Amino acid sequence: MISRRFAPVAVAIVLISACSGGGSGSSNNSDAPVAAASGLAVETDGFAFANFGSANTPEVMNGEDLRAMFGDGVCTNGSSTPCTPTSEAAAWAQMVNQSRQAGHCEGMVVQALNRFSTSATPKTSELQNQADTTHGIIRAFATQFFPAVKKESDSWAKKSVGDIVAALNDSFSSKKITYSMGLYSDMGGHAVLPLSVEYPTESTAKVHIYDTNWPGQDRYVLVDLEADTWEFSFSGQDPANDPNVWTGGKGDIDLASMENRLSTDAPFETGSNGVLGNFLVIRSASLDWSVRTPTGVVTPTESTDTTATVRPLRTAATKSVPEYIVTTSSPEIDLTLPGASSAYAVGGGKVISVVTRGTDEPITIGPTRVIFPAAAKLSLADGNLAATVTGGSGYIDVNKDSLTISVSGMTEEVTVNTQKPQVTVTVKNGKGTTTTGSAITAPQPTLPTELVQPDTKQGLPPQTNRTLAAGIATSTTVAGSATTIAGTNTTTTTVKSTNGSTSTSSTTSTTTNNQNNIVALQYMGSQYTWTNGQPINATLSFRLINASNQWASTASGTCALTLLPEFDNGSLGGASLSGTTSATANGNGTCSFSGVVINGNPGTKYRLRASLNGSGATTTLGPQTLS
Fold this sequence. Notes:
Elements: H1 2-6, E1 36-37, H2 42-45, H3 63-70, H4 87-99, H5 105-117, H6 131-142, H7 147-157, H8 161-173, E2 179-185, E3 188-201, E4 204-210, E5 219-224, E6 229-232, E7 246-249, E8 253-257, E9 278-284, E10 290-293, E11 296-298, E12 309-312, E13 323-328, E14 333-337, E15 341-347, E16 350-356, E17 359-365, E18 369-372, E19 376-382, E20 385-390, E21 394-398, E22 403-407, E23 414-416, E24 422-428, E25 431-436, E26 482-484, E27 490-496, E28 502-508, E29 518-523, E30 540-546, E31 557-565, E32 576-578, E33 582-585, E34 590-593, E35 597-599, E36 605-612, E37 618-625
Parallel strand pairs: 20-24
Antiparallel strand pairs: 1-3, 2-3, 2-8, 3-4, 4-5, 5-6, 6-7, 9-13, 9-15, 10-11, 10-14, 12-13, 14-17, 15-16, 16-19, 17-18, 18-21, 19-20, 21-22, 22-23, 24-25, 26-37, 27-28, 29-30, 30-34, 31-33, 31-36, 32-35, 36-37
Helix pairs in contact: 5-6
């Protein structure tokens, strides 16, 4: 079960030794600090593609992901495939899918940590962002919503920055990576993977990290051990000369171990990993929201409830639509959302969703009753029951085997039970109607436009402008993308298909008219859906790579895009390619194809090959099924 959660290929998971619950190493100022390294190399043990938003992939957290994490018990159809998740499981997955919009840094560093620690093959840098690889990242991303992971992170946030560095050093000294790291600023939260530490001076520590925003690059967190502060370049191409570095101290940095991510008890149920109070994920266009408990108030910047915590989500920093995680031990809260907001509350075996364009009236959440105003679209899932109310004020009661809805505009209460497991009540012009189904069980929520996260992270250059040296491959990756290195001899590339068969093609490479000595093309994107007769919803960009395996950023040349069958000896069967099939790199080292259309047979697998004229350098995308 554990291997299915994190790995795109079947590998055994070895529990990584960790100080569960936020144990720390202690600094000893009487001894000079000694550098330590885990052995992880960002060029090969990190992903070749950069951190991406959910818009860059067609994959979502689905029933099979839930089954991989929590077992058949979260599926209404048991062990049958595909898993049909219970209503509360589907609601939790929807919460995860909303939070993925701005990025997957948490999932990518957790996956990289796990694959390095288990010596998984092939190397992480050889994986493409598609299919099982993407789902493994999504599942790893979701573990930040485990109460035990949050509790451990909160414990580390109370420790000094020096204690955190000492704990990392202890881990690296035994050639292990025990923790991922969270960094927080007024821009939001970001997850990175510490891999080594050195000490330029006795009072300065330089923690080298794998940063998913900068694949293959040496990035770091600089720590002043005397001042107990840190700084980190989030968006600077040169981290040593970034005028907009993030800075922080104790409370703005934390750790999370792998151990607490391995629970198979669902957080939306009442098991050992369940939420006892309330675990909230709040996205709002404004920062005036609040959570009131019997002992205090939680806002985006502080908490007067000593049992509550508030922290930006570790997704990818974005100041335009900030998102926070709030935890409180109280089962009774008042949630006020004056601005456009989407919020989830998990606790007591139920999942609640609130979408509003703003209201000053609170949503009152208790163990067995939720009270809401007309300005809030309220959904609730409990077990396999789900209810949604829109346009009316009222309450939903949670009973042992049913839900009871009482709402303005309805002359009588509405019951949700095993005979009617999903019900929506819609109130318009003072009159209520009921329909079958509930918004909370859809894979993605429907949000006001002002709540949609931007796909490009604020301050970061486009993905195509970030070096992905680890993505330059000289052979086929398991995901099925092959790169041919140009030379003067015949090169052979073996491509393994999804059904286990292989095909081999020989390409005679030449450097004729190759003034820039280009030897390879490197794809600079994610996997996108290929739909028959429709333009691919992305510009396909390819960097020109020179003999030093570096991006030739000023090179020129003309590239061609060709449609291929699944196998070299196959037939296109009349399929063709239209749109931009020829592109020129005019001194920018990049060929970009837009509006590419595949006209073929839906259900058939095809490949796309990009090649540089006058050079044997090519790269092939796919095979991928045409929808």
